[in-house]
Amino acid sequence: MKLTDIFIQSAGSGFNFEGFERAGAKLFSKAVFPQVTLKHGSLVFNAHAVKTLDECSNIQILINMEKKSMVVKPCGENIYHSVQWSKVGKNSKVIPKIIYAKPFTGQLFYDMYWDFKGTVRILGRQIKDRNEKMLEFKLGETL
């Protein structure tokens, strides 16, 4: 919808809104999509990612560098190579937890030619395999 479609009352001589377009909310907030934020030394998933995997507390992270893809799979805390990605915060609400992983992020930043001093954000999507929910993050599609 263009701004010219909306009547806007101005107090002065008026402003010409011709040619302007409304900036959609999808362009500003990424909270409605699973997202991972990576820094050299840590990674954290957003609350939507945790909710998408039914607020599980532990995950396995699978990497395929050939496909430049990272898959996050829910698992139990006693499963080999499980990582805690959420915790119970105040008000008994499940919230994301920072995962400290300097060797992992260091290798990933090196392999992807990312700036070690920068921050990388990647949107994910839900995938299913045999009714098991997982998240996929395309490493080459950074924000």
Summarize the structure.
12% of the residues lie in helices and 38% in strands. It is mainly beta and 143 residues long. The radius of gyration is 20 Å and the shape is globular.
Task: Outline the fold blueprint.
Elements: E1 35-39, E2 42-45, H1 47-52, E3 58-64, E4 69-75, E5 83-84, E6 86-88, E7 94-96, E8 99-100, H2 102-112, E9 119-129, E10 132-142
Antiparallel strand pairs: 1-2, 1-9, 2-8, 3-4, 3-5, 4-10, 6-7, 9-10
* Strand order, largest beta sheet: 5-3-4-10-9-1-2-8
Estimated share of beta-strand residues: 35-45%
Shape designation: globular
Helix content: 10-25%
Number of strands: 10
Number of helices: 2
Unreliable parts: 1-6
Mean pLDDT: 87
Q: SSE string, helix = H, strand = E?
A: EEHEEEEEEHEE
What is the count of structural domains?
1
- Structural class of the secondary elements? mainly beta
Specify the biggest β-sheet.
Answer: 8 strands, antiparallel
Radius of gyration: 20 Å
Distance between the termini: 25 Å
